[in-house]
Design brief:
mainly alpha; 75% helix; 6 helices; 0% strand
Length: 113
């Protein structure tokens, strides 16, 4: 696909500048989902480690770190689903992790560690 057919958004312009010529908008959006998920996942893991070192026992920080890491993993999986030529039935499976994490967070006992 030519660049004139898919240009128009800031994400496409950034992709073109730093990665290369996109073949489709799907490539651009998949790349940015993958990148955002990777950054969110690493931020969640880093936040969890900092909580362990500085705020030992503060479970609110730990919960946010776990939720951020789980959301990052899900976004990374969505990015892969969008980027790669996979079956359409794979997309709902990528979101199952967020649903499971949310269900666990809502139904767990507050004293559980």
């Amino acid at each position: 696909m030519s660049n004139s057919e898919i240009q128009g958004t800031k994400l496409v312009e950034l992709y073109h500048r730093y990665v290369g010529e996109p073949e489709s908008k799907r490539d651009v959006y998949g790349y940015w989902l993958f990148l955002l998920g990777s950054v969110a996942g690493m931020a969640g893991v880093t936040m969890f480690q900092v909580e362990q070192l500085l705020f030992a026992g503060n479970f609110q920080v730990r919960e946010w770190a776990i939720a951020l890491a789980a959301a990052g993993l899900t976004l990374t999986m969505f990015g892969v689903v969008v980027l790669l030529p996979v079956l359409r039935s794979t997309a709902p499976e990528a979101g199952q992790l967020d649903i499971d994490t949310l269900a666990f967070e809502l139904h767990r006992d507050d004293d559980w560690q």
